[in-house]
Design brief:
single chain; alpha+beta; Thrombin, subunit H; Pdz3 Domain; 3 domains; 6-stranded antiparallel barrel; 37% strand
Length: 469
């Protein structure tokens, strides 16, 4: 936007804040009123903070890992330092580290360390907590539940870059679309720069009623709500429960309390129901049964069609309907017999099964960073074996990162290779991998043959260590 389109510039806490209200935005601003901008200035801007952190990014094709520093905007949501930010801070194989939070401005600016808390499963936001022994009383935003209507004007705040001293910028939008399934979703009427993602949404009454967000895509780890690629308004009701009862650090990425069935599934569409001559009432088609899972032990087979789960009808007919079934399973009772009604070969049958807790997922598996050869690896979990089409009896550790320029990188080891042997040492898990590194570091051989599984194939690689005297 050119400077001709900048209609107002005010000073906020000695940081430049520019109000961009050109073209259609000006008309929206006129309907909101100047007093709402002043409300944002006085009540909401002080509760915004800057989050600086380092993130490791893995090249999917080469497996090499690079670390870069970045920043984003956060919202203080409690006076003791609970912060909410956009969920893209934490993605698969991309966890923020060395988190620093800057609050205040000018002479009052101060930096604190912070930790990441558990990321919610149902909304793409993250929560952090400032770590300090000082007695603090931060300004914070209190969100209200307020309905949206199509065409409603809203204001939100974005974070400018370093050239503008990380100033805050206010922009006006309207609710451009209201989508009702699988849950109510609001889309804004125009593109939103990434600097606005995670920013508070303020209505014409001056109330904070949500935040700007982007859903995760499937490739980013979205497995429930994946309306990715367009800016949305996350209404207060979606995240207020996490502010009232903050997740803990111990729960980070943990699903240990979720009930687990052990199937991959798809909806029973109208076409499938017609093909199998079944009632067009929906259901869940079992496409894969995970070995060793409760479904496997109960005798489920590929092609079974679940119609009732523990007394609850299962009526999935579209991909997004599978969400409800997934949620139903996760919230079911553990370690007690449950009844499942299903179709097999056109005939309805019943199975009794007992759900267990969800096994460790690949992203939560034990990890070890080898600083000798440059390999970071994790235990090989069931979900990873399925993703890589490996049989259940395959043992080893899966490479998650390879340091650029390292001995492992020069040997052409890559991400998703499964190490099974290093030299004459078998590697079945992360502890054996760690011990193998220690033994080889002590013996210092001139060459180390590495035996790996690469997809369905096996392969040898040769590491030629550059030992330091």
């Amino acid at each position: 936007m050119s400077f001709k389109n900048i209609v107002k510039c005010i000073s906020l806490f000695s940081i430049a804040m520019v109000l961009c209200l050109a073209g259609p935005t000006t008309a929206i601003a006129d309907t909101i009123g100047k007093n709402i901008y002043q409300t944002i200035d006085k009540q909401f801007i002080p509760a915004l903070c800057r989050i600086n952190y380092a993130t490791e990014i893995t090249n999917a094709s080469s497996g090499e890992t690079n670390r870069r520093s970045t920043y984003t905007m956060g919202i203080m949501v409690s006076n003791d330092g609970l912060i909410m930010a956009h969920g893209h801070m934490q993605l698969e194989n991309r966890t923020p580290k060395k988190i620093k939070v800057t609050v205040g401005a000018g002479d009052d600016e101060k930096e604190y360390g912070a930790i990441m808390l558990k990321k919610p499963d149902d909304i793409n936001v993250v929560f952090l907590k400032i770590q300090t022994e000082e007695k603090v009383n931060f300004p914070y935003i209190s969100f209200k539940n307020s309905p949206f209507d199509l065409g409603d004007p809203i204001l939100t705040v974005g974070l400018l870059n370093q050239n503008f001293d990380y100033g805050k910028i206010i922009r006006a939008y309207r609710i451009g679309s209201v989508i009702t399934e699988p849950r109510v979703t609001y889309a804004v009427d125009n593109a939103v720069n990434f600097g606005f993602i995670g920013g508070p949404v303020v209505n014409a009454n001056g109330h904070a009623i949500g935040v700007i967000g982007y859903d995760l895509s499937d490739s980013e780890g979205g497995d429930i709500y994946t309306r990715s690629g367009y800016p949305l308004v996350y209404q207060t009701s979606l995240f207020k429960k996490y502010i009232d009862n903050p997740p803990s650090e111990e729960e980070l990425n943990s699903n240990e309390n979720d009930a687990y069935l052990g199937v991959f599934s798809q909806p029973l569409t109208e076409e499938y129901a017609e093909y199998w001559k079944l009632p067009n009432e929906g259901g869940i088609i079992v496409s894969t049964v995970i070995p060793g899972s409760p479904a496997y032990k109960a005798g489920f087979k590929m092609g079974d069609i679940i119609r009732n789960f523990n007394g609850t009808p299962v009526t999935a007919q579209q991909d997004q309907d599978v969400v409800s079934f997934t949620k139903l399973v996760r919230e079911s009772t553990l370690n007690e017999p449950l009844s499942v009604l299903f179709y097999r070969d056109g005939k309805q049958q019943e199975i009794k099964l007992t759900l267990t807790t969800r096994p460790t997922a690949g992203r939560n598996a034990a990890e070890y960073e080898d600083t000798v050869f440059g390999i970071t690896a994790r235990d090989l979990t069931t979900d990873v074996k399925i993703a890589l089409n490996l049989s259940d009896d395959v043992q080893g550790v899966i490479i998650t990162r390879v340091k650029s320029g390292s001995d492992a990188s020069l040997a052409r080891l890559r991400r998703n290779f499964v190490i099974q042997r290093m030299g004459n040492i078998s590697v079945n898990n992360i502890e054996e991998f760690k011990k193998a590194i220690e033994t080889l570091s002590k013996d210092k051989p001139q060459e180390i043959p590495i035996f790996c599984r690469v997809g369905p194939n096996t392969a040898f690689f040769r590491i030629q260590p550059r030992w330091k005297n």
